[in-house]
């Protein structure tokens, strides 16, 4: 049975003035008189083929804006110049945005279930325009929310989708959790970011209470230059992440050395084919005899670091040490003359040796992890009896105690002399603690600004999560991991939908028949077109530059010797 659309005669319909309005102008209630009829619009709907003739009217009141602007208040059944009805568009919108179907699957489903043949390219174009529609409707709701709110607490963060193109910057109000703007920026210096924020304040007619961000240089410079009097929270997550890195680097080296030592054991490195005589079992390879021990040791090495919670080097060291204890217990009463016992004893001795060599590094990592967890706990802990000043005093005392311990190490005598550094495998534990003190001094003024906010906004980590969700959507949609171009073109639409949430998106789609205004959406389509052109212009310039041929022609070329005058 063919699934192609059968040719049917179109049903002619005349879209007249809605009877419930009784020819009353929707703006001024004056009488609306007939002006002219459209030339007809043929389109496909779930119920068949239609050819609609829309009758347009004019308000008889000369003072009314609709006096010279022909209109028909009847909800449109189809968009201008479109082949498929709004009902079809709504179905596609539900499939793409609510059920997360890909255009290829939507095409299959609409053919099989609803007997409509529509190309995958057309479906992709529909989704693009649906994105523009949702963008406009979400912005409209945001404006209404912020008009009542009157003030915003702004969070901002940038995303670099790849190494080739511009960055995408997201601006969010943390009180309403609404997207304020999404910008594609080639540069994000202090002045540029300030201009973006000022445009937001003007667009929504709101006041700025403060901000939340990481401590990126351009953001810090913008805050210090333009918003110094406003409270500005520096992200707790990024503070902890910066404190975590040097400790994690030291622990990673511990795990690496443990792994190298275990892999160097005789029971790992012995030939799989070479066989030796084992008492009672005959000739076997060492790898075969100790296969189960090897598997258990490999399992011990397969530990993973969980940010802020667990370090794999520490866990591996402790598990390996416990395993050696179990091996010692298993060896009790065994005949020391047997070959298998000799190899086992050599294995245990090698493991004990490496554990002994790395004990100091393990203890450093273990102590640092404990200290880090104490910092994390104090940063997180809140009490109704502690205000901002009391909290600062508590944290000041904690880091003063750390400074007292590490002062003078490597001739650093004052906190002003502390410098940032890149952690290495052999970074001393005291050096790591010095870095923690430097970080605290750098972040101090912005760690507890959230006490001055109407909401408890300690971090902008939700923005980073939304970037991750956005990227996964494009990877799923396109089936490839390189999605930088798609993020720069369509990312602004997707981010607004992520923040609005599935319920709001579904609600907007359910009511789209009466709100899908082509004229209003033209500006949204134009912005999408501009982003697309800005992204693809680089491709055309690169291809048309002739640089590849110039590189070929320059191969082996010898520069002519210049004559001396």
Topology (SSEs and partners):
Blueprint (H helix, E strand, L loop, with lengths): L10 E5 L16 E6 L3 E5 L2 E12 L26 H13 L4 H12 L5 H30 L1 E9 L7 E7 L4 E8 L4 H15 L2 E7 L3 H10 L5 E3 L1 H28 L2 H4 L6 E3 L3 E3 L1 H4 L1 H11 L10 H20 L7 H19 L1 H22 L7 H19 L22 H19 L13 H18 L5 H17 L1 H9 L7 H27 L2 H7 L12
Parallel strand pairs: 1-4, 5-8, 8-9
Antiparallel strand pairs: 2-4, 3-4, 5-6, 6-7, 10-11
Walkthrough of the structure:
With 565 residues, the protein is α/β, with parallel strands linked by helices. Among the domains are: 9-74, no CATH class; 235-452, no CATH class. 54% of the residues lie in helices and 12% in strands. The chain has 19 helices and 11 strands. The protein has helices at residues 86-98, 103-114, 120-149, 190-204, 217-226, 236-263, 266-269, 286-289, 291-301, 312-331, 339-357, 359-380, 388-406, 429-447, 461-478, 484-500, 502-510, 518-544, 547-553; strands at 11-15, 32-37, 41-45, 48-59, 151-159, 167-173, 178-185, 207-213, 232-234, 276-278, 282-284. The radius of gyration is 34 Å and the shape is extended.
Keyword list:
565 residues, four-stranded mixed sheet, 19 helices, 11 strands, extended, disordered N terminus, disordered C terminus
Q: What is the beta-strand fraction? A: 5-15%
The residue fraction in helices comes out at 40-55%
What structural class do the secondary elements suggest?
alpha/beta
Mean pLDDT: 89
Task: Quickly describe the structure.
The chain has 565 residues and is an alpha/beta fold. The protein is built from 19 helices and eleven strands.
